[in-house]
C-alpha cells in the first residue's frame, strides 16, 4: 500500500471511527441493534404468556399453579367475549392514537425506502409508531387473535434504527436506506433466530435489490440482535419448534404426500392472500361507516370461529 493511500485510510478511520462523532454513531448503532433483540425477546415472552392467559380463559389451565380455573360454560363463552372486546380496543387505540400501525409493518417499511419525502419517512418510523406497534401487538397476543410477531418486529426494528439518525449524523446512504434495511433484517432475524434469513430478507423482500454500500450495516445489525437472542433464549431456540422422527424408512407414498401437501398448501396460501386483500378492503369500507360496530362484528366473527373449532383457532 502506497503512502498517499495509507494516509487517506488513516484519516478516514480517524474521522469516521475514532472521532467523537464516530464513537457516538457506533455506540447508538450498537444500542439500537440490542434494543431490536430485546423487543423480539419481549414479543416471544408476550406470545407465550398470551397463550397461557387464553388457555386460562378457556378453562384448560389455572392462571398459576394451584390457582382457580374457569369452569364451564364460562370457558366456552368468556373467550368469545374477550376477543370481541379486544378487537374493539385495538381498533379504537389505533385510530385515535397510533395511526400508521395498520397491517404487519413490512409494507410500511418497504414504503419508507421508496419515498423521498423525509417528513413521511419520519412519521412512518416515529417513536409513536414504535410504541403503538408494541402496545397493540401485546394486546393482540393476549386476546386470542391469530397474529404474527414477525412483521411488527421488522417495523419496530426499522423504526429503532431510523430514530438514532435524529441524535447523531450518519452518512446519507445509511439514513436513506442502510439503517432501515438493517433494522428490518435484524427484526426478522431476531424473531426467527435466523441470521441468514434476516440478511436475505432485507435485500430480497424489503429492498428488492442487493446494495453493496449497505450490506455491512445489515450484517452488523443482524449479528448483534441475534447474539442477544441466543444469549437469552439459548442456541437451541427454534421459532417453529422441533419435529422428532424415529423412523427413517419412508415409503414412496409418504414422499409423494410431501408434494401433494405442498401443492395444496400453495393453492390455499394464494386463496388466503386473495381473501386477505379483498377482505381488508371490505373491512376498511365498513370501518368508515361505523368505527364501533365493524370491529365488534370482526371480533364476534373470531369468537364464532373459535366456538365452532372448539377453541383451536385462538392464538
Task: Describe the protein's architecture and organization.
With 315 residues, the protein is mainly alpha-helical. Helices cover 72% and strands 0% of the residues. The chain is globular. The N and C termini lie far apart (60 Å).
List the helices and strands and how they pair.
Blueprint: H1 3-16, H2 20-57, H3 74-97, H4 106-114, H5 118-124, H6 127-141, H7 150-163, H8 172-192, H9 195-207, H10 215-233, H11 252-289, H12 293-308
Helix pairs in contact: 2-6, 2-7, 2-8, 2-10, 3-6, 3-12, 4-8, 6-7, 7-8, 8-9, 8-10, 9-10
List keywords for this structure.
72% helix, 0% strand, mainly alpha, 315 residues
Q: Summarize the main sheet.
A: none
Strand proportion, as a percent range, falls in: under 5%
Number of DSSP helical runs: 12
What's the rounded overall pLDDT mean? 86
Could you list the spans in which at least 5 consecutive residues all have pLDDT below 50? none
Q: Which geometry do the CA atoms define?
A: globular
What letter string, H or E per element, gives the SSE order?
HHHHHHHHHHHH
SS elements, strand count: 0
**Radius of gyration (Å):** 23 Å
What is the helical fraction, as a range of percent?
A: over 70%
For the record, give the distance between the C-alpha atoms at the N and C termini, rounded to a whole number. Answer: 60 Å
The assigned structural class equals: mainly alpha
Amino acid at each position: 500500500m502506497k503512502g498517499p493511500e495509507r494516509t487517506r485510510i488513516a484519516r478516514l478511520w480517524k474521522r469516521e471511527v475514532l472521532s467523537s462523532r464516530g464513537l457516538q454513531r457506533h455506540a447508538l448503532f450498537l444500542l439500537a441493534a440490542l434494543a431490536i433483540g430485546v423487543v423480539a425477546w419481549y414479543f416471544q415472552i408476550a406470545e407465550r404468556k398470551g397463550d397461557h392467559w387464553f388457555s386460562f380463559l378457556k378453562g384448560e389451565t389455572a392462571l398459576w399453579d394451584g390457582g382457580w380455573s374457569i369452569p364451564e360454560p364460562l370457558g366456552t363463552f368468556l373467550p368469545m367475549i374477550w376477543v370481541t372486546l379486544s378487537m374493539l380496543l385495538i381498533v379504537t387505540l389505533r385510530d385515535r392514537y397510533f395511526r400508521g400501525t395498520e397491517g404487519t409493518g413490512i409494507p410500511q417499511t418497504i414504503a419508507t425506502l421508496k419515498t423521498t419525502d423525509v417528513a413521511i419517512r419520519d412519521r412512518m418510523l416515529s417513536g409513536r409508531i414504535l410504541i403503538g406497534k408494541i402496545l397493540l401487538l401485546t394486546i393482540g397476543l393476549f386476546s386470542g387473535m391469530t397474529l404474527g410477531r414477525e412483521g411488527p418486529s421488522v417495523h419496530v426494528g426499522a423504526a429503532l434504527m431510523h430514530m438514532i439518525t435524529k441524535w447523531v449524523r450518519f452518512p446519507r446512504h445509511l439514513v436513506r436506506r442502510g439503517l432501515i434495511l438493517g433494522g428490518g433484517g435484524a427484526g426478522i432475524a431476531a424473531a426467527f433466530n435466523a441470521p441468514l434469513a434476516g440478511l436475505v430478507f432485507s435485500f430480497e423482500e424489503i429492498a428488492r435489490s442487493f446494495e453493496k454500500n449497505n450490506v455491512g450495516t445489515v450484517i452488523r445489525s443482524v449479528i448483534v440482535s441475534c447474539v442477544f437472542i441466543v444469549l437469552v433464549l439459548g442456541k437451541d431456540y427454534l421459532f417453529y419448534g422441533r419435529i422428532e422422527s424415529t423412523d427413517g424408512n419412508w415409503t414412496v407414498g409418504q414422499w409423494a404426500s410431501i408434494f401433494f401437501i405442498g401443492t395444496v398448501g400453495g393453492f390455499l396460501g394464494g386463496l388466503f392472500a386473495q381473501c386477505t386483500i379483498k377482505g381488508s378492503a371490505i373491512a376498511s369500507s365498513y370501518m368508515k361507516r361505523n368505527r364501533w360496530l365493524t370491529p365488534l362484528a370482526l371480533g364476534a366473527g373470531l369468537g364464532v370461529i373459535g366456538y365452532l373449532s372448539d377453541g383451536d383457532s385462538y392464538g
